[in-house]
Amino acid sequence: MKLCMIILVIAILISGCSNYQEVSGNTKNWSVKVTEIPPQENTEMVQTTIQYIGKEDSINDFKFKLVSDAISVSGTDSAPSLPFNTTISTNPKTSDPFSKPIKLTIEWNNQIEEMTLQQ
């Protein structure tokens, strides 16, 4: 029991020491998280995770577009398998990619959902 408490305290301290930012949000069918990750070769990076949380049996013609002053990334997948979860890494155009709202548009199965992520 004492070991479990020590591990828990260490985990809390480690997670609390991170200065990396994150924004997340949900729509009816999608869960999205955009996270600043440690720089690689002195280059700022953000990682976007998109997860399907809807009830449909299949996804066709998946498209997404993530846009802000600092981030611009898009992608497609004609027939992704379920459960669908994708992660995309990109270089932001500024050192503070979360200073302005991030707009996300997702299209699939002739549907569109949009959300704005901000701190």
UniProtKB/TrEMBL annotation:
PROSITE patterns: PROKAR_LIPOPROTEIN. Keywords: Signal. Residues 1-20 form the signal peptide. This is Lipoprotein. The lineage of its organism: Bacteria, Bacillati, Bacillota, Bacilli, Bacillales.
